[in-house]
Write a structure and sequence with these properties.
The protein has 287 residues and is of the alpha/beta class. The protein has a single domain (2-285), classed as Glycoside hydrolase/deacetylase (TIM Barrel). Helix content is 43%, strand content 17%. It has ten helices and twelve strands. The strands form three sheets. Strands 2, 5, 6, 7, 8, 9, 10 and 12 form an eight-stranded parallel β-sheet that branches. Strands 1-11 form a two-stranded antiparallel sheet. The longest helix is centred in the N-terminal third of the chain and has 23 residues, at 2-24. The radius of gyration is 20 Å and the shape is globular. It starts with a helix and ends in a 7-residue tail after the last helix. The relative contact order is 0.17.
């Protein structure tokens, strides 16, 4: 019996190794590594047991993702660690990955945070300021629509496993007036800069006042990027920005590579193993 147990363990370990290698894909990984460091970034939103949809996964799915990443030797890093590497102030693990959560949902506090503590994994948590303020004033424990409060965010930050970033104060919406923080047709650069500065700057100031540290990364609502936003984002002090553009990032020592970083949306029913395999395939199409 002991022999068969050992044999089974060897088979399982071998299968895991093959699975992890296959996740890197049949592609030009060697060339990509020669160019820089491969850093996949995964984008999550809500995590809850029921009412799942495309971008809403279950706690079981998220924990399975973390188990897979750990088993394959990936290490989740923060945006600050990535920026420090580019600045020559730090190093990166052999297989870095960034796990981002957008919008600041309360169900992230309920279901994601315990898993982070269980496996000692870091995430990047980008909040919508007005929602955080509103639910702090009028708390709710409804996992379907509530957002994390400042005390809950404080608790997560104190663990050292959650990094707080800016997802606008109140531009995360679609209306006749504006789509996220994208520039409107015919809008002047001066007016557009004021809109972004007033809104994004407000959340920067609030987070700085609340935590003593201003975010260094801006997360575009809906991934809607306008080229006119680039100088404004830099002027506001952001060292990096996250989009919803699909792809994997090759990080060099050029600080410009930190802007408009690509991500992969973690889709319900599509495990991170599959997501990694598919996004890595894009490397072989690089010119």
């Amino acid at each position: 019996m002991a022999f068969w147990k050992r044999a089974a363990a060897v088979i399982i370990a071998a299968a895991l190794i093959v699975s992890c290698v296959f996740a890197s894909g049949d592609l030009s990984v060697a060339q990509a590594k020669a160019d820089g460091v491969i850093v996949p970034i995964f984008m999550y939103h809500e995590v809850k047991p029921s009412k799942t949809r495309k971008d809403v996964i279950t706690p079981y799915e998220f924990e399975s993702d973390i188990k897979y990443l750990n088993g394959c030797g990936y290490t989740a890093i923060t945006m600050t660690e990535l920026i420090d590497y580019v600045d020559g102030k730090g190093t990166l693990p052999e297989k870095p990955i960034i796990i981002t959560f957008d919008d600041g949902y309360y169900n992230n506090y309920v279901y994601v945070y315990p898993i982070l503590k269980k496996y000692n994994v870091k995430i990047v948590f980008s909040i919508i300021g007005k929602n955080t303020d509103d639910f702090t004033e009028y708390p709710s424990e409804n996992i379907d629509y509530s957002h994390a409060t400042w005390p809950q965010i404080d608790e997560m930050l104190s663990s050292g496993l959650v990094e707080l970033q800016n997802h606008t104060y109140n531009l995360h919406s679609i209306s006749k007036k504006r789509f996220g923080c994208r520039i409107n047709k015919g809008e002047t650069a001066v007016h557009y800069e004021k809109v972004l500065t007033d809104d994004i700057g407000k959340l920067q100031d609030e987070i700085l006042l609340h935590t003593g540290k201003a975010p260094n990364t801006f997360t575009y609502p809906y991934g809607k990027v306008s080229k006119e936003s680039y100088p404004v984002i830099k002027k506001l002090g952001f060292r990096a920005s996250l989009t919803c553009d699909y792809g994997v990032n090759i990080i060099t020592k050029d600080s410009e590579v930190l802007y408009n970083l690509k991500r992969v949306c973690r889709v319900h029913g599509v495990p991170i193993k599959t997501g990694l395999k598919e996004v890595m395939k894009t490397l072989k199409y690089r010119e």
